[in-house]
């Protein structure tokens, strides 16, 4: 990781504030879309939207791609612990590297997604998934707004690291 240049500057604080605003917006959007889908669909119900996209209400007790979904219940505590620890680490990184706009934006996306899925795990015991993309009979595992934000944040982190390595050459 790169060292922060001006930890106390107003612009740096502004980057951190923007990242936290992004995180809050993602968490709220995730919460609202999940509650809307729960109110609108029965579990397992499929609503075709386009030839390659459906809305479907599913519950994921595991991690990404339902990893650990069939475990006996201990995974909930583990996944909650991981989400809390990751969120704390992200807050630390936002403080330490707060003058780096893309890095902070990416962390804001990841934090918002982590908090969105954490809420579901704590309140419901599972994560609500509802976005179902498919082609030629193959369905990508259903996901949600939080998952999308985490994925976009991870891509932005990779892009930021790539840009930084090119600047150092």
TrEMBL record:
InterPro entries xref list: Peptidase_A8
Pathway where it operates: Protein modification; lipoprotein biosynthesis (signal peptide cleavage)
Catalytic activity: Release of signal peptides from bacterial membrane prolipoproteins. Hydrolyzes -Xaa-Yaa-Zaa-|-(S,diacylglyceryl)Cys-, in which Xaa is hydrophobic (preferably Leu), and Yaa (Ala or Ser) and Zaa (Gly or Ala) have small, neutral side chains
One GO CC term on file: plasma membrane
GO molecular function, one term: aspartic-type endopeptidase activity
Main localization category: membrane
Compartments (UniProt record): Cell membrane
Ranges annotated as spanning the membrane: 20-37, 74-94, 101-119, 139-159
Keywords: Aspartyl protease, Cell membrane, Hydrolase, Membrane, Protease, Transmembrane, Transmembrane helix
Active site feature: 129, 147
Its membrane topology: Multi-pass membrane protein
Listed GO biological process terms: proteolysis
Enzyme Commission (EC) number: 3.4.23.36
Family recorded in the similarity comment: Belongs to the peptidase A8 family.
Function: This protein specifically catalyzes the removal of signal peptides from prolipoproteins.
PANTHER family linked: LIPOPROTEIN SIGNAL PEPTIDASE (PTHR33695:SF1)
Protein name (database record): Lipoprotein signal peptidase
Taxonomic lineage: Bacteria, Pseudomonadati, Pseudomonadota, Hydrogenophilia, Hydrogenophilia incertae sedis
Designated gene of the protein: lspA
